[in-house]
Amino acid sequence: MRKRNIFILILIGLGFIWVLFYLPVFTHVEKKTFPLKTGRLMELLIMPVNYDRWMNKTLRQMYHDRVLNISTMGTSMAIYTIRKKSKTKRFLISAQPAKTSEAKTDLHLSFKASLWQKMIGFNEEQTAMVNSFGKLENLVKSPLAFYGYDIHEAKVPDSTFLYYAITTTNKDRQKTMQKIFEVLIDYAEQKNAGFNGKRIFHFTREGDDSIRLYGSIGINHPETIPNNSPFPLKRMPFGKNLLVTPFEGPYMRVEQAYAAIEQFKLDHQYISMAIPYHRITAPELSLADSTITRLEVCYPVY
Questions:
Q1: Residues 78 and 111 placed together within one structural domain of the fold
Q2: Do residue 166 and residue 295 come from a single domain?
Q3: In sequence order, which residues have a C-beta less than 8 Å from that of residue 25 and are 6 or more positions away?
Q4: I need a surface site. Which of 65, 185, 246, 291 has the fewest CB within 10 A?
Q5: Is residue 9 part of a domain?
Q6: CA atoms within 13 A on the CB side of 273
Q7: Phi-psi region of 68 (alpha: psi -120 to 50; beta: other; left: phi over 0)
Q8: Which residues contact 43 (CB under 8 A, 6 or more apart)?
């Protein structure tokens, strides 16, 4: 009888150990809200070209060692299966539009865990997924990390501009730009329009060696400009939203900043109000590819 009781106690103890350490009795769920549409977020999660951006070192190594397999269920679920030493662990990431905004996504990471793991800490695979989930959040919530530029929202200042455009060659773009601002500033002085130091500028390519340059200067007294002025007045939509990012680099690479701010606009469901432009913040602006230029790229949006 005594031996039988001891045997039962041993079985109970072994059963307790098995439940405590090995039986996945809990479903661990982590939920985060991301400022990105569901489709774009799923692209990050399932396209191999994006893995290095959000997976931590351990999870990336599992993928490169071919022990991590990624599959999808529909358009809003991804299953991450890790097979190591004849053991298989599955992690489910599911996405749905946030209730507060269709431009945001609620993302859930769920996986099975034992009681011991719940109390003490996750194993290597679980830790890798949880840390990567956090890294994904940091990536998406940082415009600098995600888009490559520190894009933020501001308000359009109350400004009126004199406007001038010229088509020229790439070779002559620097002197043509200087001419645009010299002509505008001289005209503003003639009309006592009060040039306030603000200069904005943008360009469009019109051929292999043709570029159209658009320049504007801010003035304080637009009432002094006649209706038949050779330089039209442009009024900014005061108080409306303005996406802004600083840019530093060779001038013609500013197109990369334009592309990034355009993608930011689409991802966050802004609507274009006017064409994007760049605001000249330095005393001089060089259009030479060999010179580092500093300016701000701006995009008026609703």
A1: yes
A2: yes
A3: 19, 114, 115
A4: 65
A5: no
A6: 17
A7: beta
A8: 50
Give residue-wise pLDDT tens across range 103-124.
899 999 999 888 765 767 788 9
Q: Does any domain span residue 105?
A: yes
Q: Which of 104, 120, 141 is the last residue of a domain?
A: 141
Inform me whether the pLDDT recorded for 130 exceeds 60.
yes
Q: What is the CATH number of the domain that holds 214?
A: 3.20.80.10
Assess contact for 33 and 98: CB atoms under 8 A: yes
DSSP the chain: -HHHHHHHHHHHHHHHHHHHHT---EEEEEEEEESS-HHHHHHHHH-GGGHHHHS-HHHHHHHHTT-EEEEESTTSEEEEEEEETTEEEEEEEEEEE-SS-TTSEEEEEEEEE-HHHHHH---HHHHHHHHHHHHHHHHHT-HHHHHSS--EEEE--S-EEEEEEEEEESTTHHHHHHHHHHHHHHHHHHTT--EEEEEEEEEEEEETTEEEEEEEEEES-GGGS-TT-SS-EEE--TTSEEEEEEEEEEGGGHHHHHHHHHHHHHHTT--B-S--EEEE-SS-----TTSEEEEEEEEEE-
Range of 259's domain?
A: 152-301
pLDDT tens digits for 45-57? Answer: 999 999 999 999 9
Residue 160 belongs to a domain: yes
Name the domain count of the chain: 2
pTM for the model: 0.81
Q: Which residues contact 271 (CB under 8 A, 6 or more apart)?
A: 301, 302
Higher pLDDT, residue 74 or 41 = 41
- CA–CA separation, 278 and 254 (whole Å): 9
Residue 51 maps to which CATH number? 3.30.530.20
pLDDT, tens digit, 9 for 90 and up, residues 167-224: 999 889 889 999 999 999 999 999 999 999 999 999 888 888 899 999 999 999 999 9
